[in-house]
Amino acid sequence: MELQQMRYAVAIAEEQSFTRAAERCFVVQSALSRQIKSLESELGVTLFARTSRKVEVTPAGEAFVKQARLCLQAAERAKVAAAAAHGEIRGSLTIGVIPTVTAVDVAAVLGAFRRSYPEVSVHVRTGGSDDFLRRIAAGTMDVGFLGLAEAVTPQGVQTRELSREHLVAVLPVDHRLAGRHRLRLEDLADEPFVDFPAGSSGREQSDLAFDRAGLRREVSFEVNTAELLTGLVRQGLGAALVAPSVAREVPGCACIPVSDGPVRVEYLAWDSFNPSPAAQAFVDSVPVPQPRSPSLTATTT
């Protein structure tokens, strides 16, 4: 069994196609197919069920591919460790970035990191905090920027707290509550809300706060981006709870502190067991933000 055979098997499982896997691995399809047949013969099992139209991973294939990924990651780390021993940081680095990071300038951090470590191949993925936590724990992501409710503690990863903010209410500028200097959740309970999808970490922050206050609310619009969320508020379609730094940038809206509103914590998370040299270098390169003012004066922009 060779590492190259493992690479081919992983590529086929992920692409669900021998043709696309061959293109991805820069090898002719016939050679890839021969290697997989040889591997199956050695193992005594069928890894892939294939017809002229589709390829499916068998149960034996799923078990093999899972372990093959770990072997390939170990082999890559061995090469990277050898280079690191000579003072070189190289290899690949996968970073997860939620769309609402406010604690650090992610673009500036990535730019500085690339200039310091040009031999590292950086891949940025966007998505949600829960997905990033699963992927870091599974070893398919190195580092993630997270945003979680104050009551939620990240498990299975190492973290550094980047910021802690009280979310503020964002309302249309002509809303009946827009002139208030401070609100409570009960003032907003009857308002239609714009929020992130149910079950997401972005939504959980507000859901937990309303549950803790013994209040129910209606979320009329579920969105995936902060830009669309604030845009719907600006159109008068609902209220929202967002980070103060996001609220300040919303034109045509009133931004009002909520005394019993949710607290959002941003983290930098990475593998707690054995981070790669590139991952550790990136973690070390992320600056520790200065403490922010805990409150936001009501504003209209």
From TrEMBL:
GO MF term set: DNA binding; DNA-binding transcription factor activity
Protein name: LysR family transcriptional regulator
Keyword DNA-binding among UniProt keywords: yes
Similarity comment text for this entry: Belongs to the LysR transcriptional regulatory family.
PROSITE patterns named in the record: HTH_LYSR
Keyword DNA-binding included in the entry's annotation: yes
GO cellular component: protein-DNA complex
Signal peptide boundaries: none
Lineage: Bacteria, Bacillati, Actinomycetota, Actinomycetes, Actinomycetales
Domain HTH lysR-type: 1-58
Keywords linked to the UniProt accession: DNA-binding, Transcription, Transcription regulation
Name of one Pfam family that matches: HTH_1
